[in-house]
Design brief:
The protein has 274 residues and is an alpha/beta fold. It has helices at 20-28, 37-46, 61-73, 94-103, 115-123, 140-150, 166-177, 201-208, 233-243, 248-259, 263-273; strands spanning 4-8, 31-34, 52-55, 78-81, 106-110, 130-135, 156-161, 182-187, 195-200, 217-221. The protein has eleven helices and ten strands. The longest helix has 13 residues, at 61-73. The chain binds S-adenosylmethionine. S-adenosylmethionine is lined by residues 12-13, 82, 84-86, 89-91, 114-116, 160-161, 186, 188-191, 216-218.
């Protein structure tokens, strides 16, 4: 019988955000794979967890994964943790989880904090749909190219950003997406200096330019304003009928929403085309 890989979330700042289950699982496994063993030892000591630790980080992911898979296949249970938050979310772990799946080793989640979800939940920006893009490209050229691609997105864009890059990043967002675009910045979540800035990109640039930006950040860019519909209602109905598999009912609903018209009006027009 193979052992189990437990993917265990740990606090993103406040040690009290550890779950009872996370503590129990970390106590019970024979080995904990941690991004930085010295960093994690502090958390484990705080909870009296004495399980053995082994390093698992971006530079040894491949070799360590195969060693861990061997142990798992021999029946040992292993927990994977990262420095903070949920492993595999802008953190190492993907290779190990993927290898376990391929080898038929059970993978069990022990969920808990993740900075991106924590930030979204208090941002006041739409969260019905969002896109998480990890860290933005570090240099202006790459960042602007990336922003060009996402500037029309009708959903919140969430990313992690280093404090020393925040001002240049905001400057690029003003340039590409405009100063009025809604934005939230969550700083030092769950820690003493927790802060949530909410406003426009331009206002954020002004606010954060006042001093040195410190701490850990999640940046949330609000959705682009709805696009102005192009062409006539008739054209839109015909185009959707030709280019999609949608039913007439769905087409009417979509076009009515796009043009901000009552469904009955668009329905009448659709009848002439069917
Ligand atoms: N796996 C982690 C998670 O689930 O949240 C994220 C790891 S990523 C390498 C680290 C980045 O997450 C930081 O650079 C920062 O952008 C963000 N972050 C982590 N803790 C945070 C906190 N307490 N407040 C705001 N952002 C945080």
């Amino acid at each position: 019988m193979s052992g189990t890989l437990f993917v265990v979330a740990t606090p993103i700042g406040n040690l009290e955000d550890m779950t009872y289950r996370a503590v129990r699982v970390l106590q019970e496994v024979s080995l904990i794979a941690a991004e930085d063993t010295r960093h994690s030892r502090k958390l484990l000591n705080h909870y009296g967890i004495g399980s053995a630790l082994v390093s698992y980080h971006e530079h040894n992911e491949e070799s360590r994964s195969s060693q861990l898979i061997t142990k798992l296949k021999n029946g040992e249970s292993v927990a994977l943790i990262s420095d903070a938050g949920t492993p595999c979310i802008a953190d190492p772990g993907y290779r190990l989880v993927s290898a376990c799946r391929q080898e038929g080793v059970a993978v069990v989640v022990v969920p808990g904090p993740s900075a991106v979800v924590a930030a979204l939940s208090i941002s006041g920006l739409p969260t019905d749909a969002f896109r998480f893009v990890g860290f933005l490209p570090a240099k202006t050229h790459g960042r602007c190219q990336f922003l060009e691609k996402v500037k029309e997105e009708q959903q919140t864009i969430a990313c992690y950003e280093a404090p020393h890059r925040l001002l240049s990043c905001l400057t690029d967002i003003v340039e590409i997406c405009g100063a009025d675009r809604p934005l939230a910045i969550a700083r030092e979540l769950t820690k003493r200096h927790e802060e949530l800035f909410s406003g426009s990109v331009g206002a954020a640039l002004e606010y954060f330019s006042k001093g040195t930006v410190k701490g850990e950040l999640v940046l949330l860019l609000g959705p682009a304003p709805p696009r102005e519909p192009e062409g006539s209602v008739r054209d839109a109905l015909l185009r959707l009928n030709e280019e999609t598999d949608l039913s007439w009912k769905e087409i009417v609903k979509k076009v009515a929403k796009e043009f901000g018209l009552p469904g009955s009006e668009v329905y009448k027009e659709s009848l002439e085309l069917r």
